[in-house]
């Protein structure tokens, strides 16, 4: 499942083809993904110019000159494919849509954007741009982990008194938006915090280490172009997925990479998902 760095990588991959360009043709090839697609979606997109391509948590937001914003979530298996804009590559020469190509946007400039989603846990909706932040998918999201509102003081206030494990608290999208299993494991390793520690029991001094650790692992992954574990494709349309090395995630039984630590990475299951941590240096 794509996490925030992967979604940001997709957004950056879409930006050259979409930002500032008009949607010449929008094909909507089924009535629903995870939820029903918006009424008259094709008509509402066709002819619209994309003013700006943003991101909120794991949602890509395309602000249109019609006053609406296209909200896109990749779900579990959703992919955005960009096919190039070679001269003479007209739309009638395009290959027929593949299985699970659900929404296809032909852009001014010649690029074709295809949303392909085999499992259909993805979502798309259209909302007035002025009200996009209060759309039901976005309204309850906590602050962006890379934004100014996400601070150690904020986190301390939100975690105070909580007995839930810190791992679960950081996965709660209402506390901080966009974090998933991989980067929470990595950030807790970097900060030296045990994933089972009760959230309200992490000291202010350690939260002051954790917040920059979260920012650092996300920033490194975004810079590396995102990472993925399964059949995730880069936004540039190329096959394959990004190779990314982790310090803790998926390293069960291997030596801890922290300088001076002789511990071993262990795996436990929390809320049905694997947590990886060093039993020697995470407390
Ligand atoms: Zn260690």
Automatic annotation (TrEMBL):
Cofactor binding, per record: Binds 1 zinc ion per subunit.
A GO molecular function held by the record: zinc ion binding
Enzyme Commission numbers on file: 3.2.2.23, 4.2.99.18
Gene3D superfamilies: 1.10.8.50, MutM-like, N-terminal (3.20.190.10)
GO biological process: base-excision repair
Domain FPG-type, first and last residues per copy: 247-283
PROSITE patterns the record matches: FPG_CAT, ZF_FPG_2
Chemical reaction(s) catalysed: Hydrolysis of DNA containing ring-opened 7-methylguanine residues, releasing 2,6-diamino-4-hydroxy-5-(N-methyl)formamidopyrimidine; 2'-deoxyribonucleotide-(2'-deoxyribose 5'-phosphate)-2'-deoxyribonucleotide-DNA = a 3'-end 2'-deoxyribonucleotide-(2,3-dehydro-2,3-deoxyribose 5'-phosphate)-DNA + a 5'-end 5'-phospho-2'-deoxyribonucleoside-DNA + H(+)
Ranges of residues in domain Formamidopyrimidine-DNA glycosylase catalytic: 2-122
Family annotation (SUPFAM superfamilies): Glucocorticoid receptor-like (DNA-binding domain) (SSF57716), N-terminal domain of MutM-like DNA repair proteins (SSF81624), S13-like H2TH domain (SSF46946)
Cofactors (names): Zn(2+)
Pfam families linked to this entry: Fapy_DNA_glyco (PF01149), H2TH (PF06831), zf-FPG_IleRS (PF06827)
Active site: 2-3, 58, 273
Presence of keyword DNA-binding: yes
Matching InterPro entries: FPG_cat, FPG_Glyclase, FPG_N, H2TH_FPG, Ribosomal_uS13-like_H2TH, Znf_DNA_glyclase/AP_lyase, Znf_FPG/IleRS
Keywords per UniProt: DNA damage, DNA repair, DNA-binding, Glycosidase, Hydrolase, Lyase, Metal-binding, Multifunctional enzyme, Zinc, Zinc-finger
Binding partners and assembly: Monomer.
Family: Belongs to the FPG family.
Alphabetical list of PANTHER family matching this protein: FORMAMIDOPYRIMIDINE-DNA GLYCOSYLASE
Name of the protein: Formamidopyrimidine-DNA glycosylase
């Amino acid at each position: 499942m794509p996490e925030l760095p992967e979604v940001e990588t997709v957004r950056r991959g879409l930006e050259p083809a979409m930002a500032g360009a008009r949607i010449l043709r929008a094909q909507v090839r089924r009535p629903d993904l995870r939820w029903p697609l918006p009424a008259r979606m094709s008509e509402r997109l066709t002819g619209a110019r994309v003013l700006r391509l943003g991101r909120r948590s794991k949602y890509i937001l395309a602000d249109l000159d019609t006053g609406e914003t296209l909200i896109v979530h990749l779900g579990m298996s959703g992919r955005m494919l960009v096919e190039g804009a070679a001269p003479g590559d007209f739309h009638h020469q395009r290959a027929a849509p593949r299985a699970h190509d659900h929404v296809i946007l032909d852009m001014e400039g010649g690029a074709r954007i295809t949303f392909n989603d085999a499992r259909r846990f993805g979502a798309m909706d259209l909302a007035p741009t002025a009200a996009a932040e209060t759309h039901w998918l976005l309204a309850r999201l906590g602050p962006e982990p890379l934004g100014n509102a996400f601070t150690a003081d904020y986190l301390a206030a939100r975690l105070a008194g909580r007995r839930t494990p810190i791992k679960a608290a950081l996965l709660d999208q209402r506390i901080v938006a966009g974090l998933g299993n991989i980067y929470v494991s990595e950030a807790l390793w970097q900060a030296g915090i045990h994933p089972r520690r009760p959230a309200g029991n992490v000291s202010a001094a350690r939260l002051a280490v954790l917040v920059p650790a979260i920012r650092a692992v996300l920033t490194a992954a975004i810079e590396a172009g995102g990472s993925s574990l399964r059949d995730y494709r880069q936004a540039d349309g190329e096959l394959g997925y990004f190779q990314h090395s982790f310090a803790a995630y998926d390293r069960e039984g291997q030596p801890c990479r922290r300088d001076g630590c002789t511990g071993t990475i262990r795996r436990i299951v929390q809320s049905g998902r694997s947590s990886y941590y060093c039993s020697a240096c995470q407390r």
